[in-house]
Write a structure and sequence with these properties.
alpha/beta, Nucleotidyltransferase, domain 5, 5-stranded mixed beta sheet, 45% helix, binds zinc ion
Length: 408
Amino acid sequence: MRLYAVGQRSETVRRANLSAIVRELHVSGARSRSELVARTGLTRSAIRGLIGEFVDAGLASEVRATPLGGPGRPSPVVRPNPESAVVLAIDIAVDSLAVALVGLGGEVLDLVRVQRPRGHSSVDEIVGKLAELSGDLRAGSGNDSLIGIGVAVVGVVRRTDGLVSTAPNLGWRDVPLGSRFAGALNSVAPISIANDADLGALAEVRRGVAVGVEDVLYVHGEVGVGGGLIVNGRPLTGTAGFGGEVGHIPVNPDGIACQCGSVGCWETEVGEEALLRLAGHPPGGGWNEVEAVLEEASAGSAVALGAFDALARWLGIGLAGLVNVLNPRLVVLGGLFGRAHPFLIGALEAELDRRTLPGPRALIRIVPARLGVDAPLLGAAELAFEPLLADPASRLRPRGVRAELASA
Ligand SMILES: [Zn+2]
């Protein structure tokens, strides 16, 4: 049990209550005071005082609700002010680069995505291009309320300092991406960097198909296979943030070489190249060839449908292991797997029936992701908002100053 001195304890409680309210407004949008009372369990008078602090700081506004004809006065509605706290989100994907400005409450204020040629690129080239895009976006917005920068990258990332340990699609190894961005972006806002699938999972949980679900397994297929695991409402990251690399679960002892250096990893059996090989297309053909296979399957081609069946079997083998270990409520299929959901689901469910323990099997639903290609970018924005949501008090006036202003 932790003991606080009386003043320290009340300040700790105030900070926790402010955090609960700003998180609710950010995630759910405008709420009436009565709804905030119901959602946070705080008293009406506590809510009124705490909302006052957000309104004073410009982070929220209160408007009188339109009466609905019922008895009593309508409860005022509290809205987050998107322009009052803005984050810069960045996405380094296999085929594209993207930047966005996102305001408090999750409103996307501006977003630019540019295609990039597949293959290896130097860190200077990518960071330079993203700094240029970000500069244009920020100059255009005229907003100087930048509170954080979040970066999604298609690689294995150490969260503590943004070191990219490996990013095979970019040809990177041990790149200190956090410090490279800090130098290039001309901003003092803190920078957080994480793996793109982890952030795709976060976005689907906050804004997509998995809202309100506490245990989610997000699996994203493209050239590689990424995973984001949400356990008890929190991302499972491991000691340093390297966790969740489901694409490199060994599944086939007689399999082919993986780009990570091992053999028979899950992504060698279910990634984009595996699909193209199974469907008789050139394995290195990229996104255009994947589109062609999807079209063939839609048109009823037996070869394309057979390729998806074979892919679904391997998908089921890996998923069965993950479901048995993690007991998720929802499996969200992103990227290629989301697009191909209708062609995969039959064989996938059958494989899970064969290999999953009955208890966890009965509880799971398998659904396609909702946020598409922007999921990691929106997740990067959520990552950058986290310090504000965890402790908004640091953005507000100290309580003593408020009391003096009020009595003046
Ligand atoms: Zn591997």
